[in-house]
Design goal:
Layout lengths: L8 E5 L4 H17 L2 E8 L15 H4 L2 H14 L6 E8 L2 H12 L3 E5 L2 E3 L3 E2 L3 H9 L3 E5 L3
Parallel strand pairs: 1-2, 1-4, 2-3, 4-7
Antiparallel strand pairs: 5-6
Helix pairs in contact: 4-5
Length: 148
């Protein structure tokens, strides 16, 4: 791992949440100053094969069109990037944490920017299970974009 982030390849897993958009904004600013690239990754439980055909046994929220959903999420994430920042979008199927970690290993990302979650005043900041798994197991820098 380089000590510097010149021409950084920054992974931002996206799911349509406010936390993911916060992470995308921050990643975009880092990419702007390092002349880097933001890589959006959307992970669905199922691939495009469930978009076609009948999977009546699954609720629409699970088996709906992953292609349509991911395109809307990619567009929203790209919209928060500073003008001129290079970005790419990738879609995978499987368990989110495992696919994110696999993507990091395969592409050699310099930084992963994830959205954090606030649970309650009593418990403070509680990271989601995907964020926690990536934070513990990623072999690269990890940035958690918490709430302001």
């Amino acid at each position: 791992m380089n000590d510097r982030l010149d021409h950084a390849r920054i992974l931002v897993p996206v799911d349509g949440s406010e936390g993911a958009l916060r992470a995308a904004r921050i990643a975009g600013e880092i990419a702007r100053v390092t002349d880097g690239t933001v890589c959006f990754l959307y992970v669905a439980l199922f691939d495009e094969s469930t978009d076609e055909g009948e999977v009546a046994w699954l609720p629409e929220s699970v088996a709906g069109s992953t292609a349509e959903e991911s395109q809307a999420i990619f567009a929203a994430a790209a919209a928060v990037l500073p003008e001129g920042v290079s970005h790419a979008a990738y879609r995978r199927a499987g368990a989110a944490a495992e696919e994110i970690l696999r993507f990091i290993d395969e592409t050699g990302c310099d930084l992963v920017a994830l959205g954090g979650r606030r649970s309650s005043r009593v418990s403070g900041i509680l990271l989601g299970s995907v964020t926690q798994a990536v934070l513990e197991r990623a072999q690269t820098r990890v940035l958690i974009a918490g709430q302001a």
